[in-house]
Amino acid sequence: MSLELGIYKDEVLDHALAAGYFRMGNDLFTTHEVFVSNYGNGAMYDPVFWLRLNIKKVKETPSTKKIWKKCAGFSFCIELAEITEEIESLYSVYLNSVNFDGYPSCKACIPELNNPADAFDTHMITIRDQGKLIGVGFFDVGKKALMSVLHFYHPDYKRFSIGKFLMLITKEFANDCHMNFVYPGYFTLNGTKMDYKVFPQKEAIEVYLSKDQSWVPLENYTKIQLEDYYFKQVLGIDFDEEEENTLIPK
C-alpha cells in the first residue's frame, strides 16, 4: 500500500484503515497476531482480526438505550484533541485499575497533536459529572471513516459503562458527519478482553480477511472459523492436510 509518509488524513486515512492498518504513535501498522508469552525457546502468539463498524447497519438496541439513559446526567463535549494534566491524571487512575498493559501515558500514545504537519487529525470526547472529568476518548478523523485511538474512564464510574458510552458518542459523531465506518481496532481469537469492540451490535460489525483483502460481516463467522482462516489462508498451514500426509505409507 502506498501512503504519503507521515500524513494520514482525509482519504489517505480512509484507504489505510480499509487495508487493515491502524495507528501506533505517529505512524500506522498492521499485524496478524499479538505476543502472549514466552514458551520454551519460542513464543506464543494470539491471532487477531481487524474490525470496523458499518454505520449504515447500526440500529438502536435495548442495551444502547439503557446506556444512554444511565449516562443522561453527564455532559460531554467533542473538540480538537489536547492532552492536559487533568486528562493525564485520569488516565493514570484508569491504568492502575485495569489488569492489562497499556501506554504509560496519553502522550506516549498520541505524541503530537493538531499542528498542520502532524500525521493525524485527532479529536477528543470529554465526559463530565458536574464538572468532574470522568471519561475521555481520542479518535482520528478521515474523510468517510474514523478510528478510535484511546478510551478511558474513572473506575468509580464503571457501573455506568462509560467505555461503551464513549463508543456510542463516537458512532453518533461519525453518523452526523455522514461517515461510513468507525474502526475500533482488532480483537483477539483467544480470550474475551477485546470482545467489547463488537459493541453496539455484532450485526453491524465487519471483519477484515487480509488474504482476500475484503471486509465481511462478522456474524457470518465464529472465532473457530476465523482461526481456521488464520492458519490456512494467512500462514498457509493446513493441519488436516498435514495429518493426512502423515498417514500415507511410504
List keywords for this structure.
single chain, 250 residues, alpha+beta, Aminopeptidase, 9-stranded mixed beta sheet, two-stranded antiparallel sheet, globular, disordered C terminus
Question: How would you describe this structure to a colleague?
Answer:
- The N and C termini lie far apart (45 Å).
- The model is unreliable at 243-250 (pLDDT under 50).
- The protein contains seven helices and eleven strands.
- It has one domain (10-247): 3-Layer(aba) Sandwich (Aminopeptidase).
- The strands form two sheets. Strands 3, 4, 5, 6, 7, 8, 9, 10 and 11 form a nine-stranded mixed beta sheet that branches. Strands 1-2 form a two-stranded antiparallel sheet.
- The chain is α+β, with helices and mostly antiparallel strands and 250 residues long.
- It has helices at 10-18, 62-70, 85-95, 106-109, 162-176, 223-234, 239-247; strands spanning 22-24, 27-29, 33-39, 42-54, 75-80, 122-129, 132-141, 145-153, 181-188, 205-209, 214-217.
